Amino acid sequence: MLKDLLFPRGVAVIAGSKKGIELAKVVNRSLKHSYFLGEYSEEVVRQAFKCFDGVILIMSFSGAVRVVCKYSTKKGEDPAVVAVDSSGKFAIPVVNSHWGGNELASLVANSVGGSAILNTQAEEVGIRPLEHLAKLLYAKFEDVGKLAKVYSHVLDGGILCAENFDPPSGFDYVVTRGNCSFTVKLGRGCKEDELCLIPYELFVGVGLKDEARDIEDRVPGILAQYGVPLSRVKGIASIKERAKSVADKLNLPFRLFSVDELNSLDHDCLSPPSDKLREEGIRGVAEASALMMAGKGARLLLRKVKAHDLTVAVAGVVDV
Amino acid sequence: MLKDLLFPRGVAVIAGSKKGIELAKVVNRSLKHSYFLGEYSEEVVRQAFKCFDGVILIMSFSGAVRVVCKYSTKKGEDPAVVAVDSSGKFAIPVVNSHWGGNELASLVANSVGGSAILNTQAEEVGIRPLEHLAKLLYAKFEDVGKLAKVYSHVLDGGILCAENFDPPSGFDYVVTRGNCSFTVKLGRGCKEDELCLIPYELFVGVGLKDEARDIEDRVPGILAQYGVPLSRVKGIASIKERAKSVADKLNLPFRLFSVDELNSLDHDCLSPPSDKLREEGIRGVAEASALMMAGKGARLLLRKVKAHDLTVAVAGVVDV
């Protein structure tokens, strides 16, 4: 379960060549929240790097390294990239292994019967990497450059204090109170011995079929399942008036969008619409309405989750 | 032996952090023609990428990927880069695995008791990569971009014809005569179904101690040992008049340089001088005189080889 929480924007699977297509399909079927984007092309890779939390490239590592060098931007912005050779023997985190790459390599190796080649220090020492906190808390490091310093503190056996959040499971070296020489803080305004995680302001988009019932309980339930902190949700949006019941229950503002408004949204990372939506001429509901309510600079944070007759997505904004 | 021929400019070993220094020293001691350049710094890495045929980075794979993205230039120019985690568990070719990276990873893994993680197509199919030809023939592909096309031909079971050279051992799919749909040619002026390897013009620098004897036989012997084609050597250079005997034996021009001339050479890739040379105020003899005779645009091709009382180095020039 925790592993899913590292990839709320989903995982893209790309075949480096025709030879890799079969394996790509196998990997895609075995993972939750994965999307087979097809064979390698400039456009496919660019979209994968921009819009997903994980990218699986079915190609040699050194081929994958060339791809990463071409398309990666910077630590914390790029997805975790895993290379799997076309025979499925090895899965290797190519970049951002601390941002979920190690976990993704393990998941893929399990699914194809290969070996995950993990070799980062955090993994050697057996600690959960700090980068996971940013994902789990729906927040962004104010200064990623500070991480190296904090790591050497931790690898020397140091303890970190958590401020304004409860450490998720697996972070034994992060405590809520104690004698710490370094503090990880959910919030702004960090001193030198503090590492700030700036929280995103969150907006939830909801798509509904007419038969959907109990949505005021089910939507918060889905959000909780993906670790979305309800206390940080600033609004609910939809194209269906009925979704207001979710906002009312959570005591939050509600925005109703028209189909035309949603279709006017220009955003690269929207999931492909379902056949039904396409027929109705709608490009997307949950993701589009969340992004639209979040406003300028919004980032898709939780790709749409489908639960039978409803869909939920989360967008967020943050100034760093 | 053949493995050495892939790294005539030597292999640089770099420790990613203090933690990696011990392992870096172990790796360095176990390899022939390796140089421990010290702990990671901009300058050290830049020199390693520019001046060596192989670079071993003692750091996580994803760390090494960041380094490669920053310092690599292009295929065929960069060294083969291998990442070894600081516990020595895995040796992974990061980039240019066909340019010796796979072999280097195997050598390192053997030396530290770890596993080499190899996953390129040529390795899977069990053929020796074409890129080795460029190294073994002291030549440069006219158009590296054509390699992918030739590979798919070979991986489909195709046979290549060799023109103007004898295929070195291990290239069963390259034949000197036969019904080939593609030709690898040592020379210039290639048609569409030909892959050209432009030969370097070679210049040999010789350093001598006073007691060195039989140099007119020993120098050609050393060159042959490193696969340097004597027929392509265009000249011999030294600061010692006695080295002319080598030129005379091979019927080649000889250039005598003064210490001042050699010291005026501005070239990034010279090996550090021996203590004795340093005492005498000489920056280098074999490499410097070879580069100087080769002239403008010369590239160091064989880093100085020491054989008791003499040193030999090769520089080359080519227009591509």
From TrEMBL, chains A, B:
Domain Cobalamin synthesis G N-terminal intervals: 44-122
Any GO BP: cobalamin biosynthetic process
SUPFAM superfamilies reported in the protein's UniProt record: CbiG N-terminal domain-like, CobE/GbiG C-terminal domain-like
Residue ranges annotated for the CobE/GbiG C-terminal domain, each copy included: 202-315
PANTHER family referenced in this protein's UniProt entry, alphabetically: COBALT-PRECORRIN-5A HYDROLASE
The protein's name: Cobalamin biosynthesis protein CbiG
